Structure formats: structure tokens, C-alpha cells
Amino acid sequence: MKKRIDHILDAREKKITEEDTVLQPLPHKDFRFANPIIVIHHSGPVTYKAGQQARIHPHPHRGFSPYTFMLQGEGFHRDNAGNDEVIKAGGVQWMFAGRGILHSEGPTNEFLQQGGVQELIQLWINAPRANKWDKPFYQSAAAEQLPRVIDEEGIQFRLASGDYNGQTGPIQNFTPVVSMVGEIAAGREIELHATPDYWTLLYVIKGKVVVNDQPVAMHHLVVFDKAGTDIGIAAAENAQLLFLSAEPIDEPIAAKDNFVMNSMEEIDQAMSDYKNGLFGSLSY
Against a cut of 0.90, is the pTM above it? Predict the structure, then answer.
């Protein structure tokens, strides 16, 4: 049975630092959350000149996981739990913030010295109430570690997390989340399948597609009804897509600044803890 489209949301510009602006299709004025999928940020493509400087300074998180798909270029991650990693084009990284962490991120020094194009998508994946105060951890996977769950002429999808077509992605989570990035050549068609009763989203990174008979332009997010399983996609031009399907977390959400908790009291506590130095320190 085909999934009904409930929303087609345009990604809007959002300033996240004084220097950095991203496209944000979620949350949106017409649709806030698909819990556990809280935020989708699309950064770039940005062309850095050789020798240019760029970095997002150390900042705190609590209660969720920033989850990054590096589409082009390469970036670093550093946190005060002892993780210091590089993610290259096609790879993914997942940092579970848990009870609290500081991290910094940005293009690597090597990439900035040479210059080039950087593009990424970062998701915020909520954690269940029972896990929000767990110890932080970090995981990553290079492009070659992502199973090609669809690989045919003009169509390729690489699975980062969850189960699809009998394969399992390398990134693990408390709540089942199927996440994959794929390319479809102009004129090609594919049918994707989602688990009934899951939140299911499709973001058009580039190109134009027709989704269950509705045209969807670049930088738009499709939010589907939870019923049904089948999603028909036809590429009107060469397209790149992010597919997400996740088991819902039916708990209250309070999200503000860099924190995702269950109540505003917990948000206020997180902000106070950070202000009072309880998140520790991080040099970079």
C-alpha cells in the first residue's frame, strides 16, 4: 500500500553561528518533529579557498545524538569524552551526548589548506527518557563500510543505520532508525519500503523527483503518513536523496539551544549546568 504524503516542507535558511548558515527543513513552521528525528540541517555545498579558516567552536549537548552524513569534503570531530576523529566524503558519524558533552567540529586543517567543496547533513536523533542520562559515546563508519542495499544501473543507496533489504547498517541506536543516502539518475524509477507505523521522511539533497505521483524539488522534505509501506520515486533529473524511517518515541519533547529533553525544567537545568561548568572543558 502506498504511503500518503502529509507534508512537503521547504528547507529555510537558519543561522547557527555568526559565520555559519544552514538549510533547515526540520523543524518547520508547518511540522515540528518526527520524534526521534528532531532536526535536519543541510550545510553547503560551501567552497573553501586554500588557507581559509572555519570551525564551529566547542559547544554543549545533552539528551540526544548529533548524527552527520559527510556528502563532500572532510571534517573533524573532537569532544571531551576523548574522541578525536576525521570523517571523509561518504562517511557518517554519530555522537551520543547522553548526560552531557562538549564537542567542536568543522573542516579538517588538511582540507582547509588545500581548499575544496564541503557539504554535509546533520540530524538530531532523540534518545528515550530512559537513556538520556547514559554515558556519552561516539561511533563512525567510512563510505566503504556502508552496505549498498540497492545497487543497480543508475540507482544506488547506502545504508548507515537500521535494517533494509536483509542488511544492517553499522551505526547503532537505542531506537530503530533506518537511514540511507542514495542517488537516482534522471529517468530512473525505484520503489522504497518503510516499516508501517514508523515515521518516514525523504529529503531531496539535489535534483528533482516525483514521489508517489507528487513532484518534489531540491531542498524539500517529504513527511509521510505512518500507514502504508510503499514509496515510488521517479527522477526528473539526477537526484540525491536522504531516506529516514524511525520507530516513534511517544514521550514529551522539550528542545532549546543545544539540548533535547522531556521538560523545560530539564532544559533549564542543562543550561544552568553548562553555565556553571558542569559540562567540563574542551580545548581545540
Answer: yes
CA-CA distance, 148 to 183, in Å (whole number)? 11
CB 258 within 8 A of CB 207: no
Residue 259: predicted pLDDT: 97
Domains of the chain, residue spans: 5-275
Residue 186, all three cell numbers: 534522471
Rounded Cα gap, residues 259 and 268, in angstroms: 10
| Mean of all residue pLDDT scores within the chain | 95
**Which residues neighbour 254 within 8 Å (Cβ) at sequence distance 6 or greater?**
260, 261, 262, 263, 264, 266, 267
List, in sequence order, every residue forming a beta bridge with 24; answer none if it has no partner. 12
SS (H, E, C) 79-92: ECCCCEEEEECCCE
Q: State the Cα angle at 101 between 76 and 271, rounded to 5°.
A: 125
Q: Which helix (H) or strand (E) holds 203?
A: strand 199-206
Cα–Cα dist 14/169, whole Å: 30
CATH architecture of 5-275: Sandwich (2.60)
State which residues of the chain have pLDDT below 70.
none
DSSP category for residue 131: G
| Residues forming a β-bridge with 13 | 23
List, in sequence order, every residue forming a beta bridge with 184; answer none if it has no partner: 155, 239
HEC-encoded secondary structure of 136-194? CEEEEECHHHCCEEEEECCEEEEEEECEECCEECCECCCCCEEEEEEEECCCCEEEEEC
Residues 6 or more apart in contact with residue 78 via CB below 8 angstroms = 84, 85, 103, 104, 105, 282, 284
